[in-house]
Amino acid sequence: MIINGDNLIIFLIYRGFASRTEILSTKKTKKPKALSHSITRLLRSLGIEEKVKEHQAINEWSRIVGENVSKVTKAQNVVNGILFVKVKNSSWRNELIYMRQEILIKIDKTVGRGIIKEVRFI
After folding, report:
1. At what angle are helices 35-46 and 5-14 packed, to 10 degrees?
2. What is residue 121's DSSP assignment?
3. Alpha-helical segments (H) within 1-122
4. Considering the chain, what is the average pLDDT of its residues?
5. Domains of the chain, first to last
6. This prediction's pTM
7. Which residues contact 115 (CB under 8 A, 6 or more apart)?
8. How does strand 118-121 pair with strand 82-87?
9. 34-80 pLDDT, tens per residue?
């Protein structure tokens, strides 16, 4: 099944995550809710919101740490809130250990506070 904007809107209405009036409302008095609000409600109700945010940390790793660090590292996976990052050599690993707290703050700003609780360099 191909998901496009129309299919997503129909699905959100059908499953009760957004009302038809929320999406189709043209009244000036009511402020329409962003589609992202309905998607967030859907992810939360399915119990996968946290997993999606964990994968966002992996997907956005290079943007979070910058070009130089991303050349020598690769975010691997997240287990119990711990992000495992593969590092090319021990020199970089030691440097990143010193930068760990700064990196964690950047991750929190990107995916939300408390999603990634620790970063381990392997």
Report:
1. 60
2. E
3. 5-14, 20-24, 35-46, 49-59, 61-65, 67-72, 90-111
4. 83
5. 5-46 (no CATH), 49-121 (3.30.300.180)
6. 0.68
7. 50, 53, 54, 57, 81, 107, 108
8. parallel
9. 777 778 788 777 777 888 889 999 999 999 999 999 999 999 999 99
